[in-house]
């Protein structure tokens, strides 16, 4: 079996943003106004991801930086929220007080942040929700892959592979997370209601983390053994963790593993007959659309001051995975 190494997007991002330490003051000035005086033609944009240690967040940050390089009048700063809501809220406040022109937010808890975002928008700072949005702020821009659609394409494919009386375990994202909720709802509507004899042996929060997917799968194997036919995961990382636990137990070949995100490591896993399928939410397209919307708002081309965008989703299986392997090699996310 051909081996590949997935480049650490996080490490790429650490190198790429080593000089971007946050919304700090500019040299020789105490406020953002001083920055704008020295470089009036450049709009300052902040991207606040959930947690740069998460693969998708770091991939999206990298793609946003690439997309912003295509605009000579916008400058992007990436500020890690380290999966702490208080940190993300504080960073937003700091960026607003220092006069950043636009904030791109990958929210940790959209419902908890909506009122604050609404206030900033009303006070004149445009905000975009990217990758995750509960649509709680009408005049905030949004660029997402519809989470229900992501769940739908994988669930539809899973229905063609699983027996009508299959036993499955389910890995969920963080409690209250819109993406996890909507993907799980798609599975409910598309598969579990139509296959009422499918048994959900257990479902637990894995918080998007590979290590938690592995730990939960180890526990499930102890309880259910080889009765598990499939792992239904709301993201790729948890699915890969579950696969590795099943492989260690000698049971992986008897199970199917379904994820969501379409990350490079998931593509490799599908090619190597480990994961069964995933759905791509394309960080490259998301970043390009995000940069476009941001630029149009800042330059006044978008007179409304916001735009809602949903990008297409794509099912990745063994049949088409080579297309994505090639793509990830070309963009440097995979190497031999």
TrEMBL record:
Pinpoint the Periplasmic binding protein domain residues: 45-301
Q: Which PANTHER family match?
A: D-ALLOSE-BINDING PERIPLASMIC PROTEIN-RELATED
Superkingdom per UniProt: Bacteria
State what protein this is by name: Sugar ABC transporter substrate-binding protein
Claim: Transcription regulation is one of the keywords in the record: no
The cross-references to PROSITE patterns, in alphabetical order and at most eight, read:
PEROXIDASE_1, PROKAR_LIPOPROTEIN
UniProt organism field: Aequitasia blattaphilus
Asked if the Swiss-Prot or TrEMBL record annotates the protein with the keyword Signal, the reply is: yes
| UniProt family annotation | Belongs to the bacterial solute-binding protein 2 family.
Q: Which UniProt keywords apply?
A: Signal
Task: List localization entries.
Answer: Cell envelope
Cited SUPFAM superfamilies = Periplasmic binding protein-like I (SSF53822)
Q: Which residues form the signal peptide?
A: 1-27
